[in-house]
Queue: 4 jobs
Job 1
Amino acid sequence: AAQTVLKKAVELAPDSWIPGGKPDPLIHHRHGHVGKPVSRIDGPLKVQGKATFAAEFTLEGMAYAAVAFGTVPKGRIATLDTTRAEAAPGVILVMTYRNAPRMHPMPLFLTGEKAAGGDNLPIMQDDRIHWNGQPIAVVLAETQEQADHAKSLIRVTYEVETATTAFAEAKAQGTEPGLFMGHPLEVEIGDAEAALAKAAVKVDVGYRTPRHNHNAIEPHAATLAWDGDNLMIHDASQAVGHTAWSLAKVFGINERQVHVTSPYVGGGFGSKTLWQHQVLAAAASKLAGRPVRIALSREGVYRMVGGRTLTEQRVAIGAKADGRFEAIIHTGTVAMTRHNALPEPFILPARSAYAAESFKLDVEVAYLDMLANTFMRAPGEAVGTFGLECAVDELAVALGMDPVELRILNEPDKDPTEGTPFSARHIVEAWRAGAERFGWANRNPTPGAVRDGEWLVGMGCATATYPYYRMPGGAARITLTQDGRARVEIAAHEMGMGTATAQTQVTAERLGLELDQVTFAYGDSWQPGVVLAGGSQQTAAIGAAVIAAQHALVTELLKLAGNDSPLAGLKADEVGGFAGGLAKLDDLSRHESYASILARVQRHEVVVEASAPLPLETQHWSMHSYGAMFCEVRVNTITGETRVSRFLGSFDCGRILNAKTAASQLRGGIIMGLGLALMEETQFDERKGRIMNPSLAEYHVPVHLDVPAIEVIWTDIPDPHTPMGARGIGEIGITGTGAAVANAIYNATGKRIRDLPITLDKLM
Ligand code: MOS
């Protein structure tokens, strides 16, 4: 009979990853699964159309939803006429603030361990309008086309109130210090302004980055149904556990009454959390007594799902004549709403990228009436490294130094603002290897000196960096069966990045099994753990949980093995998974297979469940992933257009778990960074607070012809203070990329563009 052994979190020494204070044996892996370029196990399903995404579940009696969006930034609904919509063919109901069920606001993301809401405004509870694009009605109909048509028949008028929709006006009304996860985005060490004033060489410049919107290949969608007070929702989510808990709060029910599944996600990047569409669909479903599918249009994503806010940054660096930094100042202002918890924390990279004697870092917030901001790949670092790393390049020019050498010269020996040691930092190796591979030595440092016909050619570089996080809440269940197979369950997510594949490798390695003997099951809020696929931390969170569960499994199996086993008398921390069973770590001849252990005690299976230890490692160490980015551009002297001709990312992200999926993750981040550098810009009408380009026709992202061959290399040096020796790779690729492109453009043309995106008009 199956037996679940529930364990408390295993207490680990802060510098070790198995109980007993030893390094994680996976750092010295035996079976060769870890690091292999294994192709994605979900790949064949996806190319055959057999992977069911959120908007592809079909439920009996399902109705289709369409959302009508408001068109003023602030005020109240004066008149709202839904009669023609209600009479339209196929319409089941029209939900507005007049008939929507009573609901609580969404728990605002970052305000609690399981809060997932993009904003905490009332959802269709009154006639108030808070942003231009806010949902004002939901139509349910028998087909999507009928719902969309009926939506067009709704007539609304507003009593408009004065709104703050211009950034300059918002700043003039006064800014407030930005808070990130409860902490002020402020660092002050020494007197940086005084040090800057006295510095032998300095730069002091301003940079701007625009608003960005989310454009995951799969627009946000959900298919859901109520069964009494129980809600089943097939979502596109990077936070199934958080979403279940948060939806339960909205509807005043128990967390276990909400069942969220999300087996496949067509990209998240920070946007696939809880927004009003899931709530509205669930409310309409309750009202209609029918299952509902809601699939946002591309425009719908722009109206309802937040993006990255704009930033205005000042970066000042003061240096001695030899190039050593004395002062780093990185300050500025971002736009935010009052119903939101994410200022773009662009100062994060400056906290630990370089040694300096004094620091002044500060993010200020100006409040606008607009859609809430949210996480978008490397929130903070993606645009913060643009300012910081362009400024370092500008300083290198002022010093007459090579920008690679300037960075290496200012390499800190411990965290310069926290004072903690680095867990593992091999960024100098990354710089050296990248420079060698890219042919940096061939760069002509004189701007505008290299010409190829009508093209100017230049090279630039920048530091990439992203913190290592591991959020609490990781837990895993392992079911081991007598046929020697293991099933691991954890409420984690596969958004296309290779989680399922890499975690199958990790689990197989740890248990000593073949890849086809392991099933990694994920994407279901009823599974153990509350794991966010965000902050580039999911792999570490899963890894820590799997380590804890495997320890519980070993403990249980040793008990079952008894005195007749070659393992008799051994303790759990002396034993590891090896060749289909357990073996003594320093004497592999003392081995017994799982099948043999279970057969002797006539057990069909063993089930264990355990929680990951608290993430104490980040209290002891300064932990980050690192990279050195190299870019070659060609800028057309007649049209001003920029073509990225070569790009290389040289990374130091600890152990690489799967060489193929990791390269794709890092390359994908770089591609998104090319968009940030050259194309992406939300056009926000400052008079009306409305996004003007809510489509891929007018909001440009890189397409194949914009993307050169991108080479990705890495140090593969395990970090001894993380589970499996790995650090995050999901977000770092977008960091540094914007600056590497801008710095290459400067080298090509002599033009310093400090305002993203670097469109052709700025180079004419
Ligand atoms: Mo990432 S922006 O934390 O999904």
Job 2
Amino acid sequence: MKVIVCQNYQHLSDYAKDKVIEVINSKEKPVLGLATGSTPEGMYQALIEAYKDNKVSFKNVTTFNLDEYIGLKKEDPNSYQHFMDEHFFNHVDIDQSETYLPPGNTSDHQQACLDYEKNMHQHDDIDLQVLGVGINGHIGFNEPGTDFDTRTHVIELDASTREANARFFDSLDEVPTHAITMGIATIMESKQIILMASGDSKKEAVKRLMEGDITPDFPASVLHRHPHVTVVLDREAASLLT
Ligand code: F6R
């Protein structure tokens, strides 16, 4: 696991942006795995700027997002589809029919999970998976206790995850209780992974990630078993590392 400590959030975002562009430019039909949340917002902004400066095109890129809340319509301002449209897809030349998120608003979520996996297998493996990390160590929405061999599945969100994400909703009660997430085995099949963590609130999780045991109690720890992972931190997130 390679660890990069950046001066600040802007540098972290630029590092991730450069990595995404490097992967896109190395392949004819690149496949990216994408995350939502506060952490990658700066990276998406930097990618949009690079696109506007003609430094990258997303024309041939396919994307698969990690997760989606169950029960929110696509156009709901808190859906991850809406997040991706607003923060990225609507601002670049990506073919939107090649951007995929797990559907959070279908009648059969189990079937939706199988279909999502099938769709991924019909494409090449993910060339670069972008990850954030939860304060409880979740990756995607794989909460503590999730088996390492899981594939795309429905998960009940931890109380701590719902509380952390309540900042985007009018009240905690409105935060969905369940989500569809790529599984840990799905994530581990990516050829390369970049995990970003920023800010003081992530410092304990980062310490446990870097210095703790590999255990389903802290899902991000599985990344030590992947051959090509870069952990990109800002100084605050790295502040407890010895
Ligand atoms: C989002 C996702 C989550 C977030 C994590 C950190 O698609 O999969 O694992 O990466 O909850 O969220 P932020 O970046 O908001 O701190």
Job 3
Amino acid sequence: RAFYGSFFHTPEYGSFEYLERALIEVGEDGAIERVIAHDDPNQAAALAKVREAGTLYELGEGRFGLPGFVDIHIHSPQWPQAALALDEPLYRWLDERTFPLESKFADVDFAKKVYSDLVDQLLARGSTTAVYLGSAHLEATVALAEICAERGQRTLVGKTVMDDPKANPDYYRDASPEQAVRDTETLIREVEAIGRKSRAGAWPVITPRFIPSCTDEVLRGLGNLAESTGAYVQTHCNEGQWEHDVVLERFGKTDPYALRDFGLLREHSIMAHCPYLTEEEGEMFAELGVAVAHCPTANSYFSSAVAPVQRFRSQGIHVGLGTDISGGYSPSMYENIRQAVLVSRLLETGVNAQLPPEERGGLGEGTRLSLVESFWLATAGGAEALGLPLATFEPGRAFDLQVIDVKRPDSDLTGFGVFDEPIDRLARILYLSTPDNVRQVFSQGVLVCDKDAR
Ligand code: GUN
Ligand code: FE
């Protein structure tokens, strides 16, 4: 297949590229083979050929292509409580809301109902790749991987491990550390099998919930499993003061060192949140190839803090963006792109204008994220974090596309044609679009969502 239209993407951090009236040729496997620019003398012949073959898809007037988003941190069983109870502190939100909800995913039929809706809603917002934390149940989590494969969403997915009887309710936890490790081994096998037949791919992720919910035995067992299988690892790290203090008291060291010593920090391990990450810990992340999932919305609630993304980047740490449903209220990566920009501005200056500037606690110049940098986090940054060839329109990368119509009855992003440079168009799309502006979504070269056909 071939796709003709105008596309935005960010091959490099800090800048964007506008491919105007470009032709993108995609192979049978859904990977990009060639990008032919409008001023390339070969474009006309290439266009004629795919037109004749009937394999051309034209985005059309007033439509723009963006890469599919890569959401690198989202809790699938928390979808029914998105937007709820965010006034609670993390530990109470977990005990009173989240654990009772997640425990319902013992019922696989209920899980399938929720997960089918979640995957559809994410695709409808342009998220073609998602890194999920499932519930603590093996069966429901495998069902999620199957639903993603059916719907065409690329998935990395883990069964959440939480085995400590002192930290978790009896009605919702792993029966023992051995059982948790065995279930994780089974999950790895089953998701790898699904991945072999899924077009866009499915990968298992070793998923201790966070240190406070896990015993030493299980953390060690999962670290060994990570070593022996090379599977991805994900967890929450350095999210809030409460967690920070609990871990320090238990191990005499902070989350990153404790996780490292259990063998859980490896290349492409994904650490969610990290607002407390020190420079020294950051250097270790960079050396090991560990990635940070920046979750700006959730951090505003449960961390009451902002992660210094620009510092992470300048330290050479991989950083992607996560919605963190339901610590973050929105399933939309657009919303989180916006939030990442906004909170970075507060971190730059500090928030309390009642104080003299030098006492506000801002980190100063170089701290803010530009809109384009935030767009990179949601696309190429996520791909880099996962070590997968995704999220830019370059040969060899998976072709994941969202088609944006800038003129919808209730969401007109055309700006009356006054400011109409590529950056203006891109800014309107990123800041102002609604799910209705996203008309089609392709994953690995295949149409997975078509709102025009509804
Ligand atoms: N820490 C442990 N579990 C969770 C969770 O479900 N969400 C968030 N944001 N933090 C956590
Ligand atoms: Fe989370």
Job 4
Amino acid sequence: RYTISLRARATSSDASAPSSPPVSLSELSVQQHARLSRLCELLLERNQQFNLTGMRTPEEVRTKLVDESLALLSVIPPEATVGTTTPPRLLDVGSGAGFPGLVLAIARPTWPVTLLEATRKKCDWLDEAAAALALSNVRVLWGRAEEWAAATRPDSRRECFDIVTARAVAELRTLAEYTLPFVRVGGWVLAPKQRPRPVESWPEWERALPAIDKLGGRTHAVLRMPVASDEDAALADEMPSERVTVVLTKHAATPAQYPRAPGRPAKRPL
Ligand code: SAM
């Protein structure tokens, strides 16, 4: 049985941000726990044939991939889910082996979850995992974010999502161009990041501000991620960096010229 260890609240480093709901992972059903366990097993099995993740042990997969993905539930702004008549449409850009997208699809089975991934082999794995775990709310898109969000593409997924996640995909200014075009006006981007401490300044975020602005976004909050125990909190306080999630919101439509051609956002960030 998959054991949930996270219990703390995510804390905001931005006093003006509304407080996040507490992490209430005990709400997961026995079936959801079983699916998370099975996902860890399947991933490690498949990882012996294809290099899907650098994680090698069940403990690493659980703490570094699954727990970190579940922790994102605590930083979804309440406005994204409370009082809406339909479940939020979620996109995970650069889903890789399925993190956080597959885990969020397990935890929120009524949400339609799209996993976008540039590597075919990883898309095959994502399809295989979604089928093995009977996740009927998951669909996988093969290709690059720059292609699927292009304004010129007839089947573009531009501005089709309420929440877009992207973990370990790119520097924030590039990530803004990969993600914001997919978000509807009023929607959200959640980007888990490592932020250096102490937090007098954060160059990665500061460099991204012009890009976020050009793309119709703004920073809603930078939220510290929850830890498992007081002991972990004390250990985290000793570290030279901390885990945060950058929460962007979109206040205006992204101009049609963005995202630029594939490769351009990484090579020449806005
Ligand atoms: N999000 C996963 C995680 O946290 O474990 C995977 C992280 S992996 C380091 C980055 C993934 O993003 C790779 O699988 C890569 O193929 C994908 N990726 C990078 N740039 C992309 C783009 N422009 N569009 C779609 N996928 C992209």
